[in-house]
Amino acid sequence: MRDSSEKESSKRELDVKTGGHWFVKLLQIKGVDFVFGTTGAGMPDIQDAMVVEKPPKWIQGLHEFTTVSAAAGYALASGREGIALIDRIVGTQNAIGAMFCAYMNSSPTVIFASANVPGVPIQTGAPELHYSLHQTTMVLPWVMWLAQVESLETMPDDVEKAFYMALSEHRAPVYLTLRQDLMAQSVQKGWTASTAGVPIASPRVPDDDTCAKIVKNILTYDRPSLVTTQLGRHPEAVGSLIEFAHTFGICVMERRFFMNYPVSDKLHLGFLSRYLQPQIPDQTDLVIALEHGLLPHQTFGEVDVIDITSDPFHRQDVYAGGDYGASLFPALIRAVCDSSATLQKITKMGATMLGSIERSTITERLAKCENEHDRKFSEWRKKAQQSYESGKLDNWSVGFVLNKHATDNSVWVNGAASSWETLLRSFEMTRPGSYFGNPSGHLGPTLGMAYGVALANRNYVDVRDMGTYKIGRISDSDRIVVCTTGDGDAMFGNIDSALWTCAHYGIGVLYVILNNACWAAEWQPIESSSQHWARDAGNFEFLDLENPRIDYQSVARGFGVYAKRVETVEEFDTELPKVVAFVRKGKPALLDLQLEKFTGPAPSTVP
Ligand SMILES: Cc1ncc(C[n+]2csc(CCOP(=O)(O)OP(=O)(O)O)c2C)c(N)n1
Fold first, then answer.
1. What whole-number distance in Å separates Cα of residue 469 and Cα of residue 489?
2. What is the pTM of this model?
3. Which of 296, 381, 521, 531 is the most exposed place for a label (fewest CB within 10 A)?
4. In the chain, what are the domains?
5. In what order do the strands lie in the sheet with 333-336?
6. Residue 1 above 60 pLDDT?
7. What is the model's pLDDT at position 197?
8. Looking at ligand 1, which atom is closest to the CA of residue 97?
9. Which amino acid residue places its CA nearest to atom 21 of ligand 1?
């Protein structure tokens, strides 16, 4: 055990001039490369310090929703904390939706917001604006921890705790306010937190008895199936699941918000609906729910369930849920633990418990799964191929072309709505960490997430001291980030903000707009309303994005981004490699795919 003098020695003195300078030094010591920010007048002393201290490098976003989404995407793709800085109550209110999305995505996003306190003067004479008693508490449902930094003395520990909490399980955003008067305060000397370097808590695994019970059940039931939603948020856990599934002969189905299981593996049996009752494989008699929640009133049907989860309330692994969490479905065993370490422990224990009878049962199960896998995936491949050959630009052919041109370093950020399932079936991703989605159902986060993902393997390097300021450059990357989004989703995500940021900083992201001139996902609920008045009248006014159809080519060009309207499969096929070449050079690009309107060619009876 370390003695107290050793503990004390981790606290280092810092040469700083202001509270803001101290804060920036703390970020620097934490190894922060990028601060995703949107400027407001409540943070000038932090930004002043960022002129003379680099990294971190400021990445300006033109809307706080996009900025926080970018930090969340960065966090997911890097496995490190993503840092955002927004302004007081105004920025916070604008970013609440993005915080919800980051929460549902289990993203370790550390959100700092400036704050003014009425009646507390700011040393520079700046007026107090945009204050609210509710600034901090309004984010409460979507963060795992929040606090107001009320004194510079506690700031190092508060910042340290924010970083620590964000990366602790179950990962989620944290929110910390920084008072403008404290940031403007003159300081003689700062220091780091005394807890710096404290490791994240060791993984939680169930006790031996529980693991043995899980193994016995898996071996007793004839046809166990595993379903998962969030496992792939830890890319290293995917390998543990592959080993587990093969050891016991268990097929896997996923709601793909992360790359949870490679589709190239024969035990992958496809994708579960995001929000409907789960369609588990026929004859399943035991479901292993791994980080997988169900919406209220949903169950797995008449089968037994083993629930392996890091949160028994499943608040972050249902689609489009909220703080109520999931239904408390019945389970034989509910193990609250961390997935990767638990799967490894169960696999290891199971391997010692397998006799010849169990082994032959497992071989049989494997063969059944493989047959089912081949049947499903070959059907989908055929559909995609046929659609491609027909020359018709639709969700299948779009997936086919994306898949055709995908490379080992492609990363897909998917904000598609009605085309979500079809795209997954045709665009095959197999590498852990190569896919990010939107489990919140809140439109828009993927626009910002995409450029956060594109920066996740880059650093701010070659920093030179120019006397009155410092400057460096963003390191290169060979990662190709493709963001698929709808003509509706793109607007909700402030595509203008994302395009400008990418163009300004040289961040190569390809935005593919699935432009079907409507909010297609909204038609089905209206169509099945209780009286069907809208359906029977052909009244699409609640979802049309027609007259005019949004011209994303022109929108992108307005931000200096290369863009092309695409009308046919052939055009998409030839244009895609061209735009990927742009992305490789660190330039954003946009393809505006003209798809058929979901409700058909007839115009709405009421425009
Ligand atoms: C912030 C927010 N507002 C409204 C909705 C309701 N909503 C769900 S899907 C959808 C339409 C999405 O349109 P688009 O992105 O073009 O995809 P499409 O449905 O056409 O495939 C809307 C408005 C939502 N989910 N989130």
1. 39
2. 0.97
3. 531
4. 4-191 (3.40.50.970), 208-376 (3.40.50.1220), 391-594 (3.40.50.970)
5. 268-271, 251-254, 224-228, 286-290, 304-309, 333-336
6. no
7. 67
8. 1
9. 418
